[in-house]
From TrEMBL:
<dbReference type="InterPro" id="IPR022742">
    <property type="entry name" value="Hydrolase_4"/>
</dbReference>
<keyword id="KW-0472">Membrane</keyword>
<protein>
    <submittedName>
        <fullName>Carboxylesterase</fullName>
    </submittedName>
</protein>
<keyword id="KW-0812">Transmembrane</keyword>
<feature type="transmembrane region" description="Helical">
    <location>
        <begin position="15"/>
        <end position="35"/>
    </location>
</feature>
<keyword id="KW-1133">Transmembrane helix</keyword>
<feature type="domain" description="Serine aminopeptidase S33">
    <location>
        <begin position="89"/>
        <end position="262"/>
    </location>
</feature>
<dbReference type="Pfam" id="PF12146">
    <property type="entry name" value="Hydrolase_4"/>
</dbReference>
<dbReference type="InterPro" id="IPR029058">
    <property type="entry name" value="AB_hydrolase_fold"/>
</dbReference>
Length: 338
């Protein structure tokens, strides 16, 4: 499922803006562009670091609460893959908007098989029997969730890294900047730092964030079932990233994106992490996935790829670790036949 619709989203955005424009005076419209988007930066530092036992207890408590909650779908609960003791490496996996931890099932197993402890927490209002609950998500909830998740992950191992997809990639980048004392590795999959300009032109983004992200106007749900109020929460966080980016302890940074992705601004998807990498004096690994794979926005939707799905799991881990990435078989076959 895409973060925002493919073909009808541009129309949805335009209708939303036209409706808003009809309710506002010209002076108010001008004020939208002058409205400051940056809020007081959320604090990402934990009150107290956790050891392995304490981090495991927190994770177990979260998972038990979800198991006891009939509103949380069983397949959508948070997941902890633990080797039973603190490991040298731990990875935090942050799922995308409208998705849940099961989005990472195969990739989590790949990391676990390589010796990582793996924490995959459920985002607020996601993975519930009410498929519209995620419409209510707020930027502050998302950053608090990400900060707590990192605190748990930091107690599970020595070297900590974060992988995020789509809206989860925005949170991963935020953690890499506000918790640079902890995050050492960063992998962003289809990061949603802005919508595809063909769907929402640049001039429309800020008014949408103000009107729907601040909930000045009633929420509008696109033809694909996505809440503008919710989507703009991720955009609010994206625009709150430190500018210029901070130098932290980041060792590796990488991004993977599909040329068929019609949801995100693919230039911003590379530009934002490239600036973070530059601030840390490291190269950014950039992987444009082969068009022949047929992947669109959800580059973890690998069920139909067969052997190529396993190749991509290995590719993502290689990107995360800063190693040369293997080429998926289908891409090799296509190149050989050209």
């Amino acid at each position: 499922m895409d973060l925002i619709g493919d073909h009808q989203t541009f129309f949805d955005y335009c209708v939303a803006l036209v409706g808003a424009g009809l309710t506002l005076l010209v002076s108010a419209v001008v004020a939208l562009y002058l409205w400051p988007l940056r809020r007081r930066e959320p604090r990402g530092a934990p009150a107290q670091p956790l050891d392995f036992a304490a981090a495991t207890r927190v994770a177990d408590t979260i998972m038990a609460a979800e198991a006891a909650d009939p509103q949380v779908r069983p397949e959508s609960r948070s997941r902890l893959l633990s080797h039973g003791s603190r490991t040298g490496r731990v990875v935090l996996l942050l799922h995308g908007y409208t998705h849940a931890p099961d989005q990472y099932d195969e990739l989590a197993e790949e990391f676990f098989a390589r010796g990582y402890n793996v924490w995959v927490p459920r985002s607020p209002h996601h993975g519930t029997v009410d498929r519209r609950a995620h419409h209510q998500v707020e930027a502050g909830e998302l950053t608090a969730y990400a900060a707590q998740a990192l605190t748990v992950a930091a107690g599970l191992g020595d070297e900590v890294g974060v992988v995020g997809i789509s809206g989860g990639a925005v949170l991963a980048a935020w953690l890499a900047q506000v918790r640079g004392d902890v995050v050492r590795r960063l992998l962003l999959l289809s990061p949603f730092f802005g919508p595809d300009p063909r769907q929402a032109p640049a001039f429309a983004v800020k008014p949408l964030i103000v009107l729907y992200g601040r909930r000045i106007l009633p929420d509008r749900v696109t033809s694909r079932g996505y809440s503008l109020s919710a989507v703009t929460q991720y955009l609010t966080i994206a625009r709150s990233l430190p500018d210029p980016p901070r130098r932290t302890g980041l060792l590796t940074a990488a991004v993977a994106i599909s040329p068929l992705d019609g949801v995100v601004d693919r230039r911003a998807a590379v530009r934002v992490p490239a600036r973070i990498a530059e601030a840390n004096g490291i190269p950014l690994g950039v992987c444009e996935l082969p068009e022949s794979l047929g992947l669109r926005h959800d580059v973890l939707d690998l069920a139909a790829l067969g052997a190529d799905g396993s190749d991509l799991h290995r590719l993502y881990v290689a990107l995360y670790e800063g190693d040369p990435a293997p080429t998926p078989r289908r891409a090799q076959t296509t190149s050989a036949g050209e």
